[in-house]
């Protein structure tokens, strides 16, 4: 059976006739074989071009085979080693396996025995590399400005790595505060354009009458106040990346000019008849549903399809599990260092509170909460009393973990006061579960929400209840 990939095999055997025989054996799988007769020569060859596998005779003229094995391990070469040994040296071969060798074969052996052992060694190496790749992905808690180890963010990291080297335009979507500009910068930093400019333009923050000039530039006298020529973001980003944030806020009349820029790679400054060619990689972002904007006539369909080549959706913080604690701890340490405070960690009930909140403002809201805590408080640990009120859907007050009845008037106390939204939400979900006999899909249908929302809420409430119980016991 031929191997699909040609592998580089380092054969370390001082008996030349035997080495020629082994090379002949290995022709069946069309390997590239590098033969060395001495240990030091073999180590130099491995350093110059790391092999996929090593076939190692334990008896060498200049050094012991075990020394060669240990040297290969010390150099952290990801290589499978097959030991060749005689009948009288099996104990030595077993010792070699304890030191990291994959397997051993006893002389004399035939071609089938050698090739089968080598195939197994190469497969083990491939699997080990695959597992190591997965482990690195799962362990990756930071990535070009992002913090978070959740599966949702690992998928984002992989997408960024996959698209970074391409020239394809990327369209980022996500709620406000999810890190769309961080994602755009990550794409730029991971790309071949990393040494050129990254220019960010927020289409919602610039008056529409000035936006054209900001993107394309202008010449002297183009309009009142244009005292000189000024390059726009398109020219400044030449060779690099142009990030157009809140792209759906761009006036429709300007979208046609942007479309031509995207199509042709040329720009014409305001007030100028000349065109300039630029090389720009476009990354656009919005917190709206871009297709809904197209259907409503507020965003050009042809521009959408030009920019929406590679979609990248950023998950909201509430769907990222324990990422909220990783991010909060990073903010806490950074802000405490800036303010000269001693805060370094959270009490368990605080962690439960942070996990249970829905964070409608996402990472930006969490950032503000931690800044508030650090500025106003000090001590070795953040406790519940230090947290400001957490507002928004799923907001948690001091008695958030406790259930509360909701009167028939839909969220009003007897005196007419409005109940907190989180309290109404919790009671409605619990009521739907009671009416459905704890059938989550049926309860979700009654509430017209996703079953996953109910499962997530139940998990958050259980975590908050458990933390509160542990805090009381302490």
Automatic annotation (TrEMBL):
Give the sites modified to 4-aspartylphosphate.
57
Segments forming domain Sigma-54 factor interaction: 146-375
Naturally occurring in which organism (per UniProt): Azospirillum ramasamyi
Q: Specify the protein name.
A: Sigma-54-dependent Fis family transcriptional regulator
| TM stretches of this protein | none
Q: Is the keyword Cell division in the record? A: no
> What keywords does the record list, in alphabetical order?
Activator, ATP-binding, DNA-binding, Nucleotide-binding, Phosphoprotein, Plasmid, Transcription, Transcription regulation, Two-component regulatory system
Listed under GO biological process in this entry are: phosphorelay signal transduction system; regulation of DNA-templated transcription
């Amino acid at each position: 059976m031929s191997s699909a990939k040609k592998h580089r095999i380092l054969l370390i055997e001082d008996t030349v006739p035997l080495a020629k025989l082994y090379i002949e054996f290995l022709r069946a799988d069309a390997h590239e074989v590098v033969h060395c007769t001495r240990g030091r020569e073999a180590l130099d060859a491995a350093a110059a071009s790391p092999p996929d596998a090593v076939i190692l005779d334990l008896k060498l003229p200049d050094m012991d085979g075990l020394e060669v094995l240990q040297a290969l391990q010390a150099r952290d070469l990801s290589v499978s080693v097959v030991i060749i040994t005689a009948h009288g040296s099996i104990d030595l071969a077993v010792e070699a396996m304890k030191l990291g060798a994959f397997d051993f074969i006893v002389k004399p052996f035939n071609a089938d025995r050698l090739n089968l052992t080598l195939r197994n060694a190469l497969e083990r190496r491939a699997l080990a590399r695959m597992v190591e790749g997965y482990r690195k992905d799962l362990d990756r808690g930071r990535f070009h400005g992002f913090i978070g180890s959740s599966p949702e963010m690992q998928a984002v990291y992989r997408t960024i790595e996959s698209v970074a080297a391409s020239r394809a335009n990327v369209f980022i979507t996500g709620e406000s505060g999810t890190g769309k500009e961080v994602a755009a910068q990550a794409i730029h930093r991971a790309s071949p354009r990393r040494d050129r400019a990254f220019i960010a333009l927020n289409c919602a923050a610039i008056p529409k009458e000035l936006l054209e000039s900001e993107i394309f530039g202008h010449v002297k006298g183009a309009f009142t106040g244009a005292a000189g020529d000024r390059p726009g973001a398109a020219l400044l980003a030449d060779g690099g990346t142009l990030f157009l944030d809140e792209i759906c806020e761009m006036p429709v009349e300007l979208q046609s000019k942007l479309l031509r820029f995207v199509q042709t790679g040329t720009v014409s400054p305001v007030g100028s008849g000349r065109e300039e060619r630029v090389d720009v990689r476009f990354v656009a972002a919005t917190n709206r549903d871009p297709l809904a904007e197209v259907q409503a006539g507020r965003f050009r369909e042809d521009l959408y399809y030009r920019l929406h080549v590679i979609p990248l959706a950023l998950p909201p913080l509430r769907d990222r599990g324990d990422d909220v604690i990783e991010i909060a701890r990073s903010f806490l340490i950074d802000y405490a260092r800036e303010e000269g405070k001693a805060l370094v960690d959270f009490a368990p009930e605080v962690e439960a509170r942070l996990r249970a909140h829905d964070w409608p403002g996402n990472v930006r809201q969490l950032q503000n909460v931690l800044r508030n805590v650090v500025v106003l408080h000090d001590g070795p640990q953040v406790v519940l009393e230090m947290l400001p009120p957490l507002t928004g859907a799923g907001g948690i007050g001091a008695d958030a973990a406790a259930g509360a009845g909701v009167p028939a008037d839909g969220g009003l106390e007897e005196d007419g006061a409005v109940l907190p939204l989180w309290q109404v939400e919790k009671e409605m979900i619990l009521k739907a579960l009671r009416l459905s006999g704890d059938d989550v899909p049926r309860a979700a249908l009654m509430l017209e929400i996703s079953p996953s929302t109910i499962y997530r809420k139940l998990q958050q409430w259980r975590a908050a209840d458990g933390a509160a119980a542990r805090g009381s016991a302490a």
